[in-house]
Design goal:
Elements: H1 4-19, H2 25-30, E1 36-43, E2 47-48, H3 52-62, E3 67-70, E4 77-78, E5 83-90, H4 91-121, E6 128-130, H5 140-149, E7 163-165, H6 167-173, H7 176-186, E8 193-197, H8 200-207, E9 213-217, H9 221-231, E10 236-240, H10 248-252, E11 258-260, H11 263-266, E12 273-276
Parallel strand pairs: 6-11, 7-8, 8-9, 9-10, 10-11
Antiparallel strand pairs: 1-5, 1-12, 2-4, 3-5
Length: about 280
């Protein structure tokens, strides 16, 4: 569960964006004040559910007295046609919050479902599926929670969580060795250091340096397997680059510790969920 203050800010910002300056012209014109309404959030397709707390908060923000019953909580599996949430409250408020609630619920459930697909595909191997910083601006905390709900794990939450020396850092620093030397001089002993490489020659350089993890970028499985053998357990190995449902198993079978996929947060298809009054 994300920090409640973060969740509240995300939901309020989304509602404010939708309401604008004039509010919900349609609901306010069509529905007389004081009308009560009962509705269900229903999955149109099967998947892993995420975003129930966010959707519920959208309704409660506009109607603090809304009665909400959660049938499938965050992290639960839903079949097509399953009721996820029952909500009863002020009709205007529920219809005004509907799109914000569904936007969050559909997107986050899509992230969780996509993650579960990769996790299931690598079952029985040592590899963990992790997300990246390739997230929707403003939704990182919720998207990373959705990855965990789908059985995956999180990479860095932000630039301040750890060191990842990438190709452009290496180019700017004049090489891997000077980049790592400057990093180690700048950070404390609690900060982990990872370096990105795209060749076995670069990997050989990294193996001689005080590095905790190596990112093996865009390497085909045969090259990944050789890289993992070179590392021989001396540091954490991460594979990244064009990892999808059809390729992830082959990557996992090379023996890498971590497989990172940016698309599960920034491009996962939504899970189709609707609100039925």
């Amino acid at each position: 569960m994300p920090n409640p203050l973060i969740l509240d800010e995300i939901v309020r910002r989304a509602l404010q964006e939708d309401l604008g300056l004039a509010g919900d012209l349609t609901s306010n014109a069509v529905i007389p004040p004081g009308i009560r309404l009962e509705a269900r959030l229903v999955a149109r397709q099967p998947g892993v559910i995420a975003g129930v707390e966010a959707a519920s908060l959208a309704f409660r923000t506009l109607d603090p007295g809304a009665e909400i019953r959660v049938a499938v909580p965050d992290g639960g599996l839903a079949d097509a046609g399953a009721t996820l949430v029952d909500v009863r409250g002020d009709a205007r408020a529920l219809l005004t919050a509907e799109r914000t609630a569904l936007n969050l619920l559909c997107h986050l459930s899509g992230v969780a479902t996509a993650t579960r697909g990769l996790v299931d595909a690598v079952a029985g191997t040592r590899s963990r599926i992790v997300c990246t910083r390739k997230t929707t601006p403003g939704l990182r905390a919720l998207e990373k929670q959705a990855v965990r709900l789908g059985g995956g794990h999180n990479h860095r939450f932000g630039l301040g969580d750890g060191i990842l020396v990438k190709d452009n850092h290496i180019a700017a620093a004049g090489g891997i060795a000077p980049a790592v030397e400057r990093v180690r001089a700048a950070v404390g002993h609690m900060v982990k250091v990872e370096v990105e490489v795209d060749s076995l020659d670069q990997l050989a350089t990294v193996l001689a340096l005080p590095v905790d993890a190596v990112l093996l970028d865009n390497m085909p499985p045969d090259l990944l397997r050789r890289a993992v053998a070179m590392v021989d357990g001396r540091m954490v190995t991460e594979a990244s680059g064009t990892v999808g449902p059809k390729t992830v198993r082959a990557v996992a079978e090379t023996g890498v510790d971590i497989i990172s996929a940016g698309w599960i947060t920034h491009s996962a298809p939504i899970l189709d969920i609707g609100m039925d009054v």
